[in-house]
């Protein structure tokens, strides 16, 4: 196994100082999977004070990032490496963090407290891979298995439930039966976990190759973290355009979307408003009028609870709000959408609608999908051509209107009017043409 020169040097410094030291966890797993090396975490028998002394003696900067839990961060050649003392955890009272930790001398005790066997392996150059719980075998068989008692592991830290789902989605691994049973037995403990931590795992889950299967198989867990989705689980769509119920449609739309966190989050929430607006006509056909704006409001509640960034909040809710607005593909006018929501959102909106269509009845979507892909090409050409679709693109500005006698709010109103005329190709975007138009009014 090859780890970075920096990590190797730190391990050797600790070893030369008379202590055990290993690379541990995800970096070992990813090496065995042939995946690119991520951050290397180091575990050692040295107490934090000894770690700091060894680093200082070798002119390596040490940052006290978590001394209570035995963690010192070494900064070597500008790269940070967390070095944590072997430990066993005390009692967990909040289903998230131990009340205390005890430092130990045996790496086995340290590895035994970790979440899954594939993350409970250590490595150094002298000993090779230390695998005490069958992590290599589980990697070979593509299994997510809790270390030791699965029920206890999830009661200790309920966020591990979301980590299990995330690893299953990202690695395309199955979750071992006892671990799976423990997930369902303990899933309501997620209600006590910080929502932003859950959201971090959810984002990674959604972009995994196996996301759809995980969202399907563990939908009850998803219902705990997003209870607003529960009504979609059994909401039938008796409509020629659909072959799945609402939740089935949602997860197929996630699967069809680009592996972009925001787009896939949008697909997860895009039809969350359908159950509350569902109607059935005299022929038994189901309809979901206005589900997009209703869904956008529900999504706002969900996203606020997750404490997402303003960027994610604005983009997801905007895309959900407008996703029905591009249903009539023959009526779509690129520059109108560019003027309304901008370049990035317009491109994302078309991607959302394409993913949405792929989760419909496949016999009915060919024309719309081809048209939308054509529109994505047209969008790129419009941008490349530098065509005007926002106020700053206009050949005139507020000062030009001031010179004609416009004042205050009427300047902005008139500029927006001019922009729409330019967007609709009813007025050339030259200063002469626009000034002639204004003088001729």
Any chance you could write out the topology, listing elements then pairs?
Elements: H1 5-16, E1 21-24, H2 26-32, E2 41-44, H3 48-57, E3 61-66, E4 71-76, E5 79-85, E6 87-89, E7 101-103, H4 107-112, E8 121-124, E9 128-131, H5 135-140, E10 143-144, H6 150-156, H7 159-171, E11 174-175, H8 177-186, H9 195-206, H10 211-217, H11 219-225, H12 246-256, H13 261-269, H14 274-277, E12 279-280, E13 286-287, H15 291-305, H16 310-322, H17 334-358, H18 366-384, H19 398-403, H20 409-423, H21 431-439
Parallel strand pairs: 2-5, 10-11
Antiparallel strand pairs: 1-2, 1-8, 3-4, 4-5, 6-7, 8-9, 12-13
Helix pairs in contact: 6-8, 7-9, 7-10, 10-12, 12-13, 12-17, 13-16, 13-17, 15-16, 16-17, 17-18
Task: Quickly describe the structure.
This protein is α+β, with helices and mostly antiparallel strands and 441 residues long. 51% of the residues lie in helices and 11% in strands. A seven-stranded mixed sheet has the order 3-4-5-2-1-8-9. It has a two-stranded antiparallel ribbon with strand order 6-7.
